[in-house]
């Protein structure tokens, strides 16, 4: 919550005081790009060193970063170029924290409860995603940025104290004591080899890629899709519906725990996600799109929590940091790739092809989804929805994927 509020307020402060979208984007990039670059290294550290101490150290380091930002603000040297290095370091700390937390959960929670535990972690994320923007908007008008940063420092300190008193069993360590470049590359190769030796896990990774591709496209295209049929108020309702859907899905998975066979829930939720996307593409109505957004985000916890539980079961404890970092890297890259290609595809290919009179695809798909502004985007969403359902069916037909939750863990060579 502290990090979400601080990130929102920092971006807002820079935009309000500079009026520069470029500087605002630079602040956002500084919180994302370093984490992507640090993920492979984070996995190796998590597998090699004491995870509890690593968590405590990174919490404290992130708190010091917020303290430095507060000092820069009070000292009136608060510019993009002075804060970017500190933001980058804080982002790296967050990467180490999330990777360590995923690996620690395995030794804290019984196998049959891991799906619910993963959903509970997502519930915390969902609450912060809903509450943080509202709290940040209110706080930014009442207190200074230095006060908000001080709150962030306190939140990291509280987290570090909590971790001190949590009894975390020691997990096996892997690899050499010397973190040379050759050693880290070797460890990365061993992690990739573990995944290659389990075809079911490769299929599960592919399913996750499809879901991340969907989310990347949806988050990029929802604004022009809504604005083509309605206004800013409808866009706000759609964003709220998506956040509430994610929250309800997380609560449901936390209380229920999902089906006994996690892969069934993953495949069903993936297919259902495709169905909701298809509904959003058919009807020119902001209400229908908001309902579809609720459904799409409702399915995400079922896919991610169930998938995480299977990976935690199949991968040896001493290798989970490296594997989870590879998964996270793939997810972030796919999300970014979807965001990059969605815009040009919509502007240059699909929107022109669905124009009245001159569109090459308008006569084929127009009777079903309509023609005109926004209908090319709707066609993109419809095709992606059909592809999603197709992938879920193919995964179900594949014995290696359908049985992925039944095998014993893959052993490191």
Automatic annotation (TrEMBL):
Recorded coiled-coil stretches? none
Topological category with respect to the lipid bilayer: Multi-pass membrane protein
Respond yes or no to whether keyword Transmembrane is given for this record: yes
One of the Pfam families matching this protein, by short name: MFS_1
Q: Which Gene3D superfamilies match?
A: MFS general substrate transporter like domains
Q: Which CDD domains match?
A: MFS_MefA_like
Q: Known PANTHER family for this protein?
A: INTEGRAL MEMBRANE EFFLUX PROTEIN-RELATED (PTHR23513), MAJOR FACILITATOR SUPERFAMILY ASSOCIATED DOMAIN-CONTAINING PROTEIN (PTHR23513:SF6)
Q: Give the protein's recorded name.
A: MFS transporter
Look up and give the organism this protein is from. Answer: Pendulispora brunnea
């Amino acid at each position: 919550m502290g990090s979400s509020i601080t990130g929102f307020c920092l971006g807002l402060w820079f935009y309000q005081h500079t009026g520069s979208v470029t500087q605002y984007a630079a602040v956002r990039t500084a919180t994302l790009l370093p984490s992507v670059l640090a993920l492979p290294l984070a996995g190796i550290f998590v597998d090699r060193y004491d995870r509890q101490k690593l968590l405590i150290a990174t919490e404290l380091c992130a708190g010091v970063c917020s303290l430095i930002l507060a000092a820069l603000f009070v000292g009136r040297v608060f510019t993009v170029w002075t804060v970017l290095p500190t933001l980058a370091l804080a982002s790296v700390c967050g990467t180490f924290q999330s990777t360590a937390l995923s690996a620690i959960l395995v030794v804290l929670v019984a196998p049959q409860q891991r799906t619910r535990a993963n959903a509970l972690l997502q519930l915390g994320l969902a609450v912060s995603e809903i509450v943080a923007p509202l709290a940040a908007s209110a706080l930014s008008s009442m207190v200074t940025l230095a006060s908000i940063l001080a709150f962030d420092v306190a939140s990291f300190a509280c987290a570090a104290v909590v971790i001190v008193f949590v009894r975390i069993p020691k997990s096996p360590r892997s690899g050499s004591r010397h973190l040379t470049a050759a050693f880290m590359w070797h460890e990365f190769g061993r992690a990739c080899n573990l995944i290659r030796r389990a075809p079911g896990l490769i299929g599960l990774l592919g399913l996750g890629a499809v879901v991340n591709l969907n989310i990347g496209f949806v988050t990029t295209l929802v604004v022009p899709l809504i604005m083509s049929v309605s206004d800013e108020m409808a866009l706000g309702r759609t964003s709220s519906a998506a956040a509430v859907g994610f929250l309800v899905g997380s609560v449901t998975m936390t209380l229920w725990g999902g089906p006994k066979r996690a892969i069934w829930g993953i495949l069903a939720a993936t297919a259902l996600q495709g169905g909701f996307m298809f509904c959003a593409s058919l009807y020119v109505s902001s209400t229908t799109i908001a309902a579809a957004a609720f459904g799409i985000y409702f399915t995400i916890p079922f896919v991610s929590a169930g998938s995480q539980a299977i990976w935690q079961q199949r991968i040896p404890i001493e290798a989970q940091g490296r594997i989870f970092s590879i998964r996270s890297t793939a997810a972030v890259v796919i999300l970014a790739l979807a965001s990059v290609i969605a815009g040009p595809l919509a502007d240059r290919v699909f929107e022109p092809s669905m124009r009245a009179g001159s569109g090459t695809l308008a006569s084929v798909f127009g009777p079903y989804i309509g023609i005109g502004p926004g209908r090319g985007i709707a066609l993109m969403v419809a095709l992606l929805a059909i592809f999603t359902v197709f992938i879920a069916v193919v995964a179900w037909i594949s014995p290696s994927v359908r049985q992925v939750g039944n095998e014993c863990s893959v052993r490191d060579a």
